[in-house]
Amino acid sequence: MRRLLFRLTQERVLSLWQRESRTTLAPGALRQLHSCSALVYRKHGHQYDTVRMEEMSLPALGQHSVRLRMLAAPVNPADINMLQGTYPILPVFPAVGGNEGVGEVVEVGRKVTSLRPGDWAIPWDAGFGTWRTEAVCEADDLLQVPKDIPLLGAATIGVNPCTAYRMLQDFVTLKPGATVIQNGSNSAVGQAVIQIAAALGVKTINVIRDRPNRQELEEELKSMGADFVITEEELQCLGLDNVIQELPKPILGLNCVGGRSGGLVLSSLCDGATLVTYGGMAKKPLQIPAKSLIFKNITLQGFWMTQWKRSNSKDVMQLQAMVTSVCDLVMSGQLQPPHCVQVPFHHYSQALQATVQAHQRKHVLLL
Predict the structure, then answer these.
(1) I need a labelling partner for 326 at 20 to 30 A (CA). Which of 54, 277, 290, 317 fits?
(2) Within 13 Å, how many C-alpha atoms sit on residue 334's CB side?
């Protein structure tokens, strides 16, 4: 069942040749075949050495398809999980790695109206296979992004900023002055939450792990708009009420860590609040105090960006509206692209190794 979930995107890209080869062409028209360099894996492995750079033939351009020259593609932890076979969706082998990235439209089929050559576009679904120099796909697999935002911002906008945007929009009504508390606040999603919340006039309490450069990290997060930064240890020992008295208690908690950290966020919420879990970096069960459920009536929710996109896949206008809204925040300067390490495509092993070793900076392949 897990393998079947992946076919929604991967097979659409890989099977275009069979479907489009049956398209009726105008008399005298010729199909020009192209190839690309791609990072391909044919089995799962616990490290990144299952990936090899290979030359791949591209399917011919059909009436409803687009040829996309990839410009930049990040390496995310979820990409590594897919290589390892531990992600909820699994590929059909051989598979091209990468779920996120931005490309420039090179050519469009004659019935494509949503995109034109020169546009920038991003895939909306997971499993696209962005670690390649070119791709041919259905026009409906792509969403347009403006060319006047930074390249790294466009390449990394489809997952983490959209995750932050949806969690701040979908679970509770956040009016200006409301408070949100989150852990993993220095993650890419956490930084996006800080900035988008600030744009909405919403206050953030940001929980981090104690570390030698705590002061430096606190200043960095506050420069993004964080109202308070507190360590897990401080929250555990003192409690939120004894540390932060200027803000109303949080009505929304965002948890990407789990374990004790998630329990601390849960215990800090006000009566009737909602805790949204979207990750489990600690790889430990969420600690749920019974009194929070019984006496505070806390609601527990989960969120997975991929599932949200697939649930709304028939409403392309809604997907495009979300991406456009997030891009508007970037263009207005209210949302900064994450700090990234730029890696030439042929040095891909450097980016994969750094992500496996959980380096803090996101690595982005420049294609």
Answers:
(1) 277
(2) 17
348 tagged catalytic: no
Looking at the domain that runs over 10-158+316-331+339-366, which CATH code has it been given? Answer: 3.90.180.10
Please state, in angstroms and rounded to a whole number, the distance separating the CA atoms of residues 209 and 231: 5
Q: What's the residue count for the chain?
A: 367
Q: Per-domain residue ranges for the chain?
A: 10-158+316-331+339-366, 172-302
In the predicted model, what is the mean pLDDT of residues 209-235?
A: 95
Residue type at position 366 = L
The catalytically annotated residue of 41, 87, 165, 278 is 87
CA dist 178 → 169, 194, 218, 227, 265 (Å): 13, 13, 21, 12, 16
Structure tokens at 262: 């998630």
**Regarding beta strands 35-41 and 228-231, do their DSSP bridges make them parallel or antiparallel, or are they unpaired?**
unpaired
Q: Quick one: pLDDT band at residue 8, thresholds 50, 70, 90?
A: very low
Q: How far apart are CA 87 and CA 85, in angstroms?
A: 6
Per-residue pLDDT for 150 more than 80? yes
Question: What pLDDT digit, counting tens, does each position of 30-87 carry?
Answer: 445 689 999 999 999 877 789 999 999 999 999 999 999 999 999 999 999 999 999 9
